[in-house]
Every structure is written in C-alpha cells, then in structure tokens.
Amino acid sequence: MELRQDPSSSTRWWGKETRAIVTGGNRGIGLAIVKRLAELGVTVILTARDAKKGKEALELLRNEGLGDFIHFSVLDVSDPHSISAFATWFNHNFGVFDILVNNAAVSFNGLYENSVKHAEIVIKTNFYGPKLLIEALLPFFRCSSTHKSRILNFSSRLGLIHTVKNKNIRAILEDEENLSEEKIDGVIKLFLEQVKEGKWENEGWPKEWTDYAVSKLALNAYSRILARRLRDSNISVNCFCPGFTQTGMTGGKGSRTADIAANIGAQLALLPPQSLQTGKFSEGMGFIGAGKQGRGWFRGCGGREGVESEPLLVKVEVGCGFRGLRLDWMGGASSREGQSNNGWGSTTAGDPDSGKQAFTYCNSGCFILAFGELRHEQYSNVPQESRLLSNVKKDHMYAALTL
User: Fold this and answer.
1) Residue-wise pLDDT tens digits, 138-160
2) Residue 263, domain extent
3) Which domain of life is it from (predicted)?
C-alpha cells in the first residue's frame, strides 16, 4: 500500500502550485514530512532556525531529485523577530500558501527525566511559537469557497486534558463555550509561576515531561479555539500526535520511525476537502509498505477528550489491485445495541453490509475509526460514515491508512 496517489485520482486536490510550510524541517519528523510532501508533488518551504543545517537538509533532498519542489528559509519560532522576517520573506517570494505544518518543538529532558529547568523556553517554542507564526501567516492562506487551507499542529497525547489532575485547571480547559486565549495564557502563567516557586509537582500538572506536556496542552486548547474562529474562512485547524517516534528528542528510541510518522502526517495534511474536519486531535501509527501489496497497522487510543478508554488496534491487508480490504479490530468498543465487543472482530470493508456492521460495532462508546478514501468504484457502496476520520462524539479525529 502506498500513500502516493494517482494524479488522476478524484481525491487528489493538490499539485505543484500547492504550497506547504514546514517548521523544524531540517531533521527528524520535520525532514521526513518535507520529503513526503515533495514526493507527492507539493511545493514545500522547509524552515529551520539553523541556516547551515537547513541548507544541508535542502541539499540532501535535492540529491534525491526533489529540488524542484523544495525551498528553504531560516525561521526560529521562538523568536518573534524571526517570525516577522519570515512572513515578510514569504510574502515577497510566494504570496500565498495552502498548508502550514507546525512541527518545530523542543524538550530538554531525557526519555525518563522530568526537569522543568527550561520551562519558559519550552513554552515559548512549543506553544507561543506556533501561535505567533499562525497569526503572522493568516493573511497569506489561499482561501475561497471551494478551497480548504490547512493548519496541522504537531502535538502530543501528553497534553491531553485527562493528564491534568488539577480540577480547577481542567474545568477551565473543558469549558469549550467560554475557553479563550486569555484563559489559556492564564493557565500558562500559573504553571510558570509555580515552577519559579518550586511547587509545581503537587499542583496536578501532567506527570510526564511536564513542561513539554503543558506546552502541548496549551497548543491543543488554542487549536480548538482557532478552529472555531476560522471555520467560516475555510481554514481547518487540527492537531496530530505522531506517537513514540525515533527522533533526537527521544534519543533515537521509539516504536516507529520518523518516516512512518511523516506518512500519516502528510496523509492528514492532504485529506480531500470533503473528508477534512477541523478542531480535531489525531493520534496514529501506521506502516505503509512499498507497492500495492502489504499490510499496515493503525493504533488509536482514547475516545472523548479527557475520558480514558481502551485502545483500538486495526490491521489492514491490501491485496493486489486493492481488490481486498480487511478490517480487523480489537477491544474497547460496544455496539449500538449495548453489547460488549471486546476481543477481535473482522470484516471486509468493501462489502456494504459487513462494512456497516463493523462501524456499528466500533463507533459507539469509544470510536468511529474509518478509512478516509475508499473511493475505488468497487467500494462505492461503503457507507458514508466509513469515509470520515472522526470520533462519534466529534472530539477526536483518528488517522487511518489511506488507499
């Protein structure tokens, strides 16, 4: 199974004139998603705070034959002056764009450490950096009634609301109707004050990589506010957790490679307009093999934001020519009839009856998990809900492998 799409596919909306900006694009997941988008025919502006490393990354990708699709500019998202300079440079050289991937982030902790010594720079880079960049670039998004631009903020499940045990903070973040940027700033200010006072450990903040988690907690909350604000502008705003990935931040440890995470990130960034939602948190892991034969795995955890639930594991096997698609699911869901369906279930999604049955079993209680583009003619009868990447409670969007 390949993420690459046939240029004649009805779901392919992009071309070389489509422009994406990727922050932190000189290494790790950032470099991998720059490469993936360029392979798929998108023009990408690779950014990095270190000019030398950014140019080295550009040269690497040029040597792989992608030079016509990639440009480079210095951008340090922790520096407002750098953001302003980049916006001016971009406007002069390109003018409009379609996709912003906020990937750049920092953590100063080892894998099993939890120091908050650098909390201010972590918050400044991981939360205020993407926020200021989005605001600076908003005038340059390509917007029309028929075109959807996209903001994809790389985030983390460490920043989900259920990781916060302080009831007052949770109440602020869960009050969607009254949540505001000022209230998010207030949460950040409280955290930094408690860090300075040395009493943050007993105040109900996330227990793992606390400063990093708080920065992503704020980014997730801001993304939901921004999604509502931009809904009428035809700009979607979503968050994506790539999971435990082998990068410099994790010391090279992880359950997946940067390429795997980038494949799913690129897929989310390029969802067809009819499948693209906004204000969602997506978490996924998949393997995309070479050619049209192979198998992939997707894992999603969680249900409604802030409510823990069992994991769902999906196995996809694709036969030659996409003639067979099998969906195996396990655990954590109950049917609409209220019956427990823990354990394995299996269906062939190409068959409308079994497809409906699978989604009946999987959608209530925890999930709808679906494939974004079952659009070959033989799959024309698959129910519409199976083409959407959404949670039945509309609080999460779950990545899936796309044919």
Assistant:
1) 999 998 777 899 999 999 999 99
2) 19-279
3) Eukaryota
